[in-house]
């Protein structure tokens, strides 16, 4: 017990020392669940968005925490961020939900923003997209799925069977897959849904899907696991003459041929502008509606190299409106 | 105020991990069974309690249900190992792998879900709302005029939450202490020490192993239930990284607080997880980039594993000094008997 007392004492002295170092800048906590290109870009966009509205690093201090994919860390960072910072930003569903939960438990009502959350209503962050809720608002990265499906039809007018590939444990991907499935079924296209469980079976699942009888195209929603293993998909579809439409730009660059993508930088910037509005007007976060990206704010992108390697030719009118990202 | 906040944060993250560490301790230390089911039963415990609370079930019932689910996981691992003769490590891996799918299926039972599976659920806990947790039933609320909502009275909400967690952990520790003091508990410990010997004493070691693994996983699932009610969300990746935290807690706890008796051992293991969170929280607050955290884990575990070795070293230096001074005393007296030893030195 003596040892425990010493440890606790040392801890509290250290904590007291840490607590006394106060700053006059506005503190904004940023919680990101894992290293991920799209999420990194969104974070930088957020900082730029704030800077554009006059809240640059001379006025704002960013406290950045990365959970490294471990839920235990994400939730313990969330707790310290909400009490230390004047405002916090959650990137992705898990981080945003943790921040909200921590703030509610502490009875705090400091503004809380989220970005890159696909379905904020399902995640119980807000009760509708028309408005924020209480101290919570943010932006959703719901992809323009209906328009992505239209893009498939534009590329292959005679399309009648489309495969959907995602990871079963990812809620964002699942939500998008459901929307895509509904959109495809509505236009009379048969769908085949295949899911992988982790990094190890991305290759076999995508090969199985690409070899499916009479398949014309594969739709992959945004998916962290597949985003990290795009090469496996690329190898699986090589030479199969199957069109791959991926959920967003960086995944498309890795394994797809063409897509209409949410620009994560722009998404982050929009969220930054929202943060600046809350800070400058002193309004409640909940007064701002949840921002979703419209078709016009998204970019048509394609990868000529991937098209060549898998033997897919895109119609000229599609190539004309796309930016080649190779 | 901020100090209080930091301490509350550490305790609210650390206390569910005490249970996790205790559960892992039962298999890893008492039974000598490297059980990888842990992350699976944590996940299923969290999902079960989470979904039931999402659907508006009484939180105490939800917690009990998740204990049951954990026990089932443990039983499966035990049966795979004892009756189907699958190696211990593999039986754990099999159950762990299966649990990933089962978790999706359990979360699919959230009301309002259209499909069979679901990979993330979260619920809002409000005053008078349908979803309540074992903490929120006792949480004091105040009315916030500006937002028009009832919000948790700070810091009492957190303190009560931690008190409830601590009570659950204390109950589990007492239950473990008394159960493993009974005749059957002793039989299980004997099985862990030497299976052949235990068999010779007429103990059914197969049943003893299965029961111990089941208890261990029931406690781990309880940790999951405590965690999910605190986090108010569960997802397919909820349990990732907890096995390492549990093992690290056991090792750090044993190294710092010792394992002189069974009682001391249980307390050390539980305090280990709090100590672990203290160290990690302080390192991050001192400005360690979060990207270095895995490295910090590794260094911490290495240091903890080295402590017995360092202790031995320090002890032998003490012993040598003691001997030397005794010899000096003797030689001052002119006792010739020990002069030989002195010369040897």
Structure in a nutshell:
The complex is a heterodimer of chains A (326) and B (345). Chain A is α/β, with parallel strands linked by helices.
Write the layout of secondary structure elements.
The complex is a heterodimer of chains A (326) and B (345).
Chain A: H1 2-20, E1 26-32, H2 37-52, E2 60-66, H3 71-84, E3 87-91, H4 93-105, E4 112-117, E5 136-140, H5 145-155, E6 161-167, H6 171-186, E7 190-196, H7 202-210, E8 217-220, H8 224-228, H9 230-237, E9 243-246, H10 249-255, E10 258-261, H11 264-281, E11 291-292, E12 299-302, H12 304-310, H13 316-321, E13 323-324
Helix pairs in contact in A: 2-11, 3-4, 7-9
Chain B: H1 2-31, H2 38-54, H3 59-82, H4 88-107, E1 120-122, E2 141-144, E3 149-152, H5 156-179, H6 183-193, H7 195-200, H8 205-231, E4 233-235, H9 242-257, H10 262-285, H11 293-333, H12 339-344
Antiparallel strand pairs in B: 1-4, 2-3
Helix pairs in contact in B: 1-5, 1-8, 1-9, 1-10, 2-3, 2-4, 2-8, 3-4, 3-8, 6-8, 9-10, 9-11
Low-confidence stretches of chain B: none
The average pLDDT score of chain B comes to 90
- Give the tally of β-strands of chain B: 4
**What is the assigned CATH homologous superfamily of the largest domain in chain A?**
Response regulator
Mean pLDDT of chain A: 88
The proportion of residues in beta strands of chain A is 15-25%
Total number of domains of chain A: 2
CA radius of gyration of chain A: 22 Å
How many helix segments of chain A?
13
CATH topology of the largest domain in chain A: Rossmann fold
The structure class of chain A reads alpha/beta
Judged by helices, strands and strand pairing, the structural class of chain B is mainly alpha
- Beta-strand fraction estimate of chain B: under 5%
Q: Any idea what the CATH architecture of the largest domain in chain A is?
A: 3-Layer(aba) Sandwich
Number of strands of chain A: 13
- Helix tally of chain B? 12
Share of helical residues of chain B:
over 70%
Oligomeric state, counting identical vs distinct chains:
heterodimer
């Amino acid at each position: 017990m003596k040892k425990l007392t010493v440890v606790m004492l040392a801890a509290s002295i250290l904590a007291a020392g840490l607590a006394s170092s106060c700053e006059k800048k506005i503190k904004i906590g940023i919680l990101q669940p894992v290293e991920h290109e799209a999420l990194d870009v969104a974070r930088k966009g957020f900082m730029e968005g704030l800077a554009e509205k006059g809240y640059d690093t001379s006025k704002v201090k960013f406290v950045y925490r990365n959970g490294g994919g471990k839920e235990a860390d994400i939730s313990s960072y969330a707790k310290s961020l909400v009490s230390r910072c004047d405002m916090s930003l959650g990137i992705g569903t898990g981080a945003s939900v943790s921040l909200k939960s921590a703030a509610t438990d502490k009875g705090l009502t400091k503004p809380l923003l989220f970005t890159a959350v696909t379905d904020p209503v399902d995640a119980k962050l807000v009760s509708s997209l028309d408005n924020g809720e209480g101290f919570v608002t943010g932006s959703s990265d719901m992809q323009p799925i209906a328009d992505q499906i239209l893009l498939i039809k534009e590329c292959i007018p005679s399309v009648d069977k489309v495969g959907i590939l995602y990871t079963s444990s990812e809620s964002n991907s699942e939500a998008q897959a459901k929307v895509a499935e509904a959109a495809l079924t509505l236009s009379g296209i048969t769908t085949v849904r295949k899911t992988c469980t982790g990094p190890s079976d991305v290759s076999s699942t995508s090969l199985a899907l690409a070899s499916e009888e009479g398949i014309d195209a594969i739709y992959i929603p945004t998916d962290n696991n597949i985003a990290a293993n795009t090469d496996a998909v690329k190898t699986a579809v090589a030479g199969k003459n199957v069109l791959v439409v991926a959920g967003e730009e960086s995944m498309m660059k890795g394994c797809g041929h063409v897509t209409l993508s949410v620009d994560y930088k722009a998404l982050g910037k929009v969220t930054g502008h929202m943060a600046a509005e809350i800070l400058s007007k002193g309004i409640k976060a909940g007064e701002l509606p949840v921002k979703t990206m419209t078709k016009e704010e998204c970019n048509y992108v394609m990868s000529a190299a991937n098209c060549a390697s898998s033997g897919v030719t895109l119609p000229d009118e599609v190539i004309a409106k796309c930016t080649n990202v190779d | 105020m901020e100090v209080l906040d930091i301490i509350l944060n550490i305790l609210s993250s650390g206390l569910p991990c005490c249970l996790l560490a205790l559960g892992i301790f039962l298999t890893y230390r008492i039974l000598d069974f490297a059980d990888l089911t842990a992350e699976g039963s944590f996940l299923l415990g969290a999902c079960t309690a989470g979904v039931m609370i999402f659907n508006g079930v009484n939180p105490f019932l939800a917690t009990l249900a998740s204990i049951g689910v954990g026990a089932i996981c443990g039983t499966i691992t035990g049966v795979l190992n004892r009756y189907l003769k699958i190696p211990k490590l593999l039986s754990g891996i099999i159950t762990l792998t299966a649990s990933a799918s089962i978790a999706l299926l359990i979360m699919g039972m959230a009301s309002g879900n259209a499909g069979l599976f679901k990979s993330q659920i979260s619920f809002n806990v409000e005053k008078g709302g349908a979803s309540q947790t074992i903490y929120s039933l006792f949480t004091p609320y105040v009315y916030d005029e500006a937002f028009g909502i009832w919000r948790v009275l700070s810091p009492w909400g957190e303190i009560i939450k931690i008190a409830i967690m601590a009570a659950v952990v204390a109950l589990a520790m007492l239950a473990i202490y008394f159960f493993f003091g009974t005749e059957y508990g002793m039989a299980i410990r004997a099985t862990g020490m030497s299976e052949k010997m235990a068999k010779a004493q007429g103990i059914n070691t197969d049943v003893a192993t299965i029961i111990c693994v089941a208890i261990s996983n029931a406690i781990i699932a309880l940790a999951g239930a405590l965690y999910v009610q605190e986090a108010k969300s569960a997802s397919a990746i909820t349990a990732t990284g907890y096995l390492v935290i549990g093992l690290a807690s056991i090792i750090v706890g044993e190294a710092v607080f010792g394992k002189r008796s069974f009682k001391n051992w249980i307390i050390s293991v539980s305090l280990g997880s709090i100590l672990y969170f203290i160290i990690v929280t302080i390192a991050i607050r001192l400005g360690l980039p979060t990207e270095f955290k895995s490295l910090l884990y590794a260094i911490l575990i290495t240091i903890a594993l080295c402590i017995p070795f360092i202790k031995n070293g320090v002890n032998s230096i003490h012993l040598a000094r003691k001997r030397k001074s005794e010899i000096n005393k003797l030689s001052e007296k002119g006792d010739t008997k020990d002069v030989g030893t002195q010369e040897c030195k």
